[in-house]
Amino acid sequence: MTSPHTPITRAHKRTPVAIEVIVNGVLNQIEGRICDLSEGGARIDGASMPARSRCEIHYAGQVVYAIVMWSEFDRMGVRFPYELSHGPLFNALERARGAASAHPAQIFLSNRSPGFGRRGLS
Fold first, then answer.
1. Distance CA 40, CA 10 (A)
2. Which of 12, 36, 15, 10 is nearest to 96 (CA)?
3. Is the pLDDT confidence value at 119 over 80?
4. What pTM was estimated for this model as a whole?
């Protein structure tokens, strides 16, 4: 008897960031960059550890514990057993979300021609 596959929705919205971190494993210390962050986990590029291993992420004096959920040659996805709710990494996440929600500047709108294209064809 099989059950239909139901997609699992994420509990937290992932936000693109570029945060340099140090990842400590049991036997090694690796520099990496968090490229995708949420309260529940992150994608770290430039660092790789075996799946299901535990590690520490060091950023701005804060240590965040994580479990490697998947791993490739030069990147990995980690889950935080304790959701981010405070500290420098959470503050960086909030800043990134604030910057992403800001509207891009409306530049040169007054110089636009009323027609179609650069030449104002209609």
1. 9
2. 15
3. no
4. 0.74
CATH of domain 15-101: 2.40.10.220
pLDDT digits 0-9 by tens, 43-71: 999 999 999 999 999 999 999 999 999 99
pLDDT in tens, 91-105: 999 999 988 765 555
First to last CA, the chain: 62
Backbone angles phi, psi at 96, to 5 degrees: -65, -40
92 phi and psi, to 5 degrees? Answer: -65, -40
Instruction: At 56, list the tokens.
Output: 């520490």
Residue 66's closest CA among 96, 100, 93, 39? 39
The C-alpha torsion from 47 through 12 and 66 to 30, rounded to 10°, is 20
Assign 101 to helix, strand or coil.
helix
Spans of all domains in the chain: 15-101
Q: What is the CA radius of gyration of the chain?
A: 20
